[in-house]
């Protein structure tokens, strides 16, 4: 099945149009301001309605947005307007997996975001249940990091998300709140081995129902949240930490990972492609590996608390 995205550039005029429509504006003035036709404005209004905006239309007065959805391509474009990382947005009402779409396009600096995923993927082939109400997105990163720094990037993403969501990190990058999973991160590589592109897929439980091992922000705070607001804070911190890493501040990030860690000091079992390792998690080393009490180091794997 082909999933059709709604593609928006972050500098698009529709963001400006949205601001004017919030205040209330006539079709004629809006068309003049944006240098477009009244028909184009009418089509834009219809599209907004498709995405859940309620628009009051008054003869002679024009249009005014009276109710906005908590997430839409235009909200996402507004959020990403000043971003140094995201230049384009692919917005889906429904998709198989944003990571899949990101890998297929293989273009850096794009944010893929979906209201729902039919085949959301977690680490180690698990399913990421992606019902309406959660945040599901993937970012394609520019090729700024050498391959050996990818484990650091995985941990860096965990630090950023834990900071933005006020959670703790289970190695390598699950974000937990009171021991339950609030957010999952799936980093994947695309392209040639010498110069791959990284796709960072992020799922945050916001207003959605979660499986029993998960928790949503609405359960933490006792009220529903605007997904756009959550996305805004998450992207801001993610971008800050991503550039911190590319500028060489890994030492600082590693210290923050340790402070936010839920794993260090625990007795763990880590299942890797090379075998199963058991011991106390004692540290994160300089190249991003988890050090166990017997001195063994693991860079990737499925971690279980004993
Ligand atoms: C994990 O904890 O196992 C990782 C979960 C990652 C889920 C996100 S949701 C957006 C992106 N698209 C996917 O199919 N997976 C990631």
Model description:
This protein has 306 residues and is α+β, with helices and mostly antiparallel strands. It folds into three domains: 9-67, Arc Repressor Mutant, subunit A (Orthogonal Bundle), CATH 1.10.10.10; 73-260, Bira Bifunctional Protein, Domain 2 (BirA Bifunctional Protein, domain 2); 267-305, SH3 type barrels. 33% of the residues lie in helices and 29% in strands. It contains nine helices and 15 strands. The protein has an eight-stranded mixed β-sheet with strand order 1-4-5-6-10-9-8-7, with helices on both faces. The two termini are 42 Å apart. The mean pLDDT is 94.
Per DSSP, the total helix count is 9
The tally of structural domains comes to: 3
How many β strands by DSSP?
15
The chain-level structural class is alpha+beta
Outline the low-pLDDT stretches.
Answer: none
Strand content: 25-35%
Helix content: 25-40%
The average pLDDT is 94
Task: Please compute the radius of gyration using only Cα atoms.
Answer: 21 Å
Q: Which architecture of the largest domain does the CATH hierarchy give at level 2?
A: 2-Layer Sandwich
Shape: elongated
Query: What is the CA–CA distance across the termini?
Result: 42 Å
- Spatial strand arrangement across the major sheet: 1-4-5-6-10-9-8-7
Major beta-sheet overview: 8 strands, mixed
Order of helices and strands: EHHHEEHEHEEHEEEEHHHEEEEE
| Main CATH class of the largest domain | Alpha Beta
In CATH terms, the superfamily of the largest domain is Bira Bifunctional Protein, Domain 2
Identify every distinct bound molecule in the structure, by name, code or SMILES: biotin
Q: Could you say what the CATH topology of the largest domain is called?
A: BirA Bifunctional Protein, domain 2
